[in-house]
Amino acid sequence: MKKQPRSRQRPHRVVMLGFPQAQVLDITGPLEVFARTSRWLAEHRGTRTPAYETELVAARAGPFATSGGLQLVATRRYEDAGSIDTLLIAGGIGFEAMIRDKAQLRWIAAQARRVERLGSICNGAMLLAAAGLLEGKPATTHWAYLDRLEKLAPGARVERDALYVRAGNIYTSAGVTAGMDLALALVEQDHGKAVALAVAQELVLFLKRPGGQSQFSRHLEAQRRDDLFGELELWMLEHPGEDLSVENLARRMNMSPRHFARQFAARLGTSPGAYVRRLRVEQARRRIEGGASRLKQVARDCGFADEQALRRSFQSIVGITPAEYRERF
């Protein structure tokens, strides 16, 4: 996301639409990112006007219970929110009741034409889908609700392996903490990468993750498999530069290559070759995010024949070249 210089004399208004049984971190996480950015800019850049003004609204003003039992307070009804710059829709198990609220869906649809940015956190994307805002657009949500999103918005291009997705002024993000990744991306859009990274550091976030990064940790996925294939996955993840051919992997499993390939695809849902290619690209991406400067070394460490092989696979899976990825993220 390119930085868009702002010359406003008032705070950028970020309004979060909450509801009973929303996920508390879907609400407080992103709002804290914007609030902390305002404070950081005041303390380090001397800005006098707060960069952001945050507010929580709901169908009714007053307290409502989140799914974790904590209560949050909506300062006013969403109809009375007034002028909004960025509108965010929370997620949580309470979304089922919200997608049946036709008046609220009409209001959300109307806001899409008025606000600078309209985004959803977690399964808040269901409200955008029910409001008819995702048809023909790329979108994502929490991994557990991807199929539901496809049913609610059959014309949407559901990105099943992304932290957040942008389509014009519509933004959707994956589960819970991915809302903070989206908020940081919006801060970067407004104030540049250095500010976003500084805010991430103040919030003790490990990394300001790019939107295309997978929702899943393959190490955790492998650890959940309590069989020999889980052990093989972990070994592959830790040794991307080794010979990961079907023949060599089959030998490690004491299987014939043909039987191994069938069993691998049945258990992991993809062929060994496709899995290895994606694994190596993810390892290369992680090294680039960690500051690796020489792509030739990255290619060698991650098991690619050369830098051109890395470039072809990286662009095919991530959508941009390794050099462009390093420049952007």
Description:
By secondary structure, the protein is α/β, with parallel strands linked by helices. It has 2 domains: 12-202, Class I glutamine amidotransferase (GATase) domain (Rossmann fold, 3-Layer(aba) Sandwich); 218-328, Homeodomain-like (Arc Repressor Mutant, subunit A). The chain contains 15 helices and 11 strands. It has a 7-stranded mixed β-sheet. Strand 10 and strand 11 (170-173) form a beta hairpin. The longest helix is centred in the N-terminal third of the chain and has 22 residues, at 24-45.
Number of helices: 15
The description of the largest β-sheet is:
7 strands, mixed
User: How do the helices and strands follow one another from N- to C-terminus?
Assistant: EHEEEEEHHEHEHEEEHHHHHHHHHH
CATH class (first level) name of the largest domain: Alpha Beta
CATH topology of the largest domain, which one?
A: Rossmann fold
If you compute it from the alpha carbons, what radius of gyration comes out, rounded to the nearest whole angstrom?
A: 22 Å
State mean pLDDT (0 to 100 scale).
Answer: 89
The CATH architecture name of the largest domain reads 3-Layer(aba) Sandwich
Q: Identify the strand order in the major beta sheet.
A: 5-2-1-6-7-11-10
What topology emerges from the helices and strands here?
Elements: E1 12-17, H1 24-45, E2 52-58, E3 62-65, E4 71-74, E5 76-77, E6 86-89, H2 95-98, H3 102-112, E7 117-120, H4 125-130, E8 138-139, H5 146-152, E9 157-158, E10 164-167, E11 170-173, H6 178-191, H7 193-202, H8 218-224, H9 228-238, H10 246-252, H11 257-268, H12 272-289, H13 295-301, H14 307-318, H15 322-328
Parallel strand pairs: 1-2, 1-6, 2-5, 6-7, 7-11, 8-9
Antiparallel strand pairs: 3-4, 10-11
